[in-house]
Amino acid sequence: MVSNIKVLSSSAGDVIISGYLLKSRRTELFRKLFWNLDCVKHSSEFNIRDWKKRYCILYKVRRENKTEIFFDYFKDESFSKFKGRVDLEHCECIVENVNIGGQPCAFSLTTLFNGHKRIYYFIAADNKIMSDWVHQLARVAELVDFSAMNTERHFA
């Protein structure tokens, strides 16, 4: 995976963080696999073929009296094909170092999608990139770190 990542200062309309991540496309299976805080299930059912490389961008847009934060993902960095958006306004939980079928550098976000809980799973190229994404996402979603004394970090 390409470790193309950028962290920029955030002002009106600026990118907070962007770069390539692997994103799981097996969302229906994951809805059934909740574990601990309804955030994640340790599973060997995850397979690398179920992941797609996506160019992800976390950015904010200022409008007259409101600032909105968006987490979008695209097929590539040309932004030619929009693939989706993670609803951070209803983000309940972010888990860093989640164990997904032995894949390293993974994290998950639990949010609401059309009134139902949805878990998004991502894999970064390395631990630093994963930590950068988790830190920025937790900051903009205004989540608090509820880390236990283990390798996983839970933000809720």
From TrEMBL:
Per its UniProt record, what Pfam families does this chain match?
Answer: PH
Matching entries from SUPFAM superfamilies are given as:
PH domain-like (SSF50729)
Domain of life, per UniProt, equals Eukaryota
**PROSITE patterns for this protein:** PH_DOMAIN
| Record domain PH: where | 14-142
Q: This chain belongs to which protein, by name?
A: PH domain-containing protein
